[in-house]
Amino acid sequence: MKNFTLRWAFLLMAASPLTLVAQTPEPATSTQTPKGGLFGGSQQFRTFSIGVNGGVLIPAVATGGSNDFTKWQLNYGYGAYVKWQLLHFLALRGDFVGGKLKGDNSEKLGNGQNPNRAVESFETSLNWSGSLNAVFNLATINWLHRQSAAQLYVSVGGGLAGYKPTITTASGTRDYKSSGSINEFFVPVGAGVKFKLSDFLNLDLGYTMHYLDGDNLDGFNYGSSKDKYAYGYAGLEFALGDRTKPQLAWHNAPAVMYDDLVAQKDQLKLELDAEKENNAKLAASVAKLQADSDGDGVSDLFDKCPNTPATDKVDGAGCPLPKDTVPPAPVKVIITEDDRRLVRDAIANLEFATGKSDILPKSFASLDRVADLMIRKNLSLKLAGHTDNVGTEANNMRLSKNRAESVKSYLTAKGVNPSRIEATGYGELQPIATNKTAAGRQQNRRVEFTIF
């Protein structure tokens, strides 16, 4: 048949873009529709689905071409498929289609190619057909609403069909081949539109043209042309897997990115508002702290004597100081001979571990008496550490300093104010006896106490 009219097929395809616009819903909230992330991988989506469909089979295709009968007839068809979504726009689909195909020579005018019309009609049982197809999503995103509600797709693949033609002639009806079904390779090329009914259910409308590698479909072989047939269908597609995950085919990555940016913007706005509020509180606190109404140099927050004249000198509380105050005479500290003897005893009894700054326990009693004296009379003490010349000068300097500091630490632990003790080390620089004898070296290893 040349230039035949495929009214049903074209009507189905023409209705697709209109339906795409008419069925676009308002965007769903994030609590209504599960969303996948941008870079989390396919494991966060449902990628497998199954579909069932039913429709019409016709022994002709929308692209035209030659056919062996003047009129084709609509007949039922049915199918099913399993689909694996590899990417947002690409899937592999295994299809099965079955049904019946019919045609006759009842049209007087047309593009049929049977000149003698010896074969009056045919009926072919499409027992089965199986194919593997690549499915490409052409449009899945509605940029106005950021919600994927419908998608256009095309498919192409290859498969094998098993069918059995029966032909009717003037002499009666007979099988085209008595040997059984005919198996032939075919190439399916299709297009369709899919609508998202829910997170796990889709409505699928499609049209597929099947190009056979032979001229046996209608039971009549005329010339070198090859038979073709088309399947127009409507069906349902069911997404498999965890329902909390979205379907990969419907995933709208720009919408997810937009929502994420909006959420981040809202969070940043909250944080910025909180920082502004904190800064306002801080500015108010600083202003309150800096306020000095009477100009006396003391903040109003701490000023216990407000409205003090600017010429008056004030204390830390903002209150005027007495104008004719005479400072009290300092108390004179008298150091007695008993005090000096007590210190000398401490010096005489002070011993350290050999080569170390650890004070031996036998020195504690005399040091305790020095601590008591300093606390009672509020005395100050200068400690000077010395060593003999055994060892390096640097080590001796360090050892003398550490021993003086050990005495200071002991007295401080007994309650003496550390600010009243000065500890200095002189090493071997100030001997009081010769270092050539053991007795002289022993005298040089000392800590001198000077009270005042």
From TrEMBL:
Residues 258-292 form a coiled coil. GO terms for cellular component: cell outer membrane; pore complex. One of its GO terms (biological process) is monoatomic ion transport. Residues 339-452 form the OmpA-like domain. Keywords: Cell outer membrane, Coiled coil, Ion transport, Membrane, Porin, Signal, Transmembrane, Transmembrane beta strand, Transport. It is found in: Cell outer membrane. One of its GO terms (molecular function) is calcium ion binding. InterPro entries: Bact_OuterMem_StrucFunc, OMP/PagP_B-barrel, OMP_bac, OmpA-like, OmpA-like_sf, TSP_type-3_rpt. Its main location: membrane. It comes from the Bacteria. The keyword Membrane applies. This is OmpA family protein. It comes from Chitinophaga barathri.
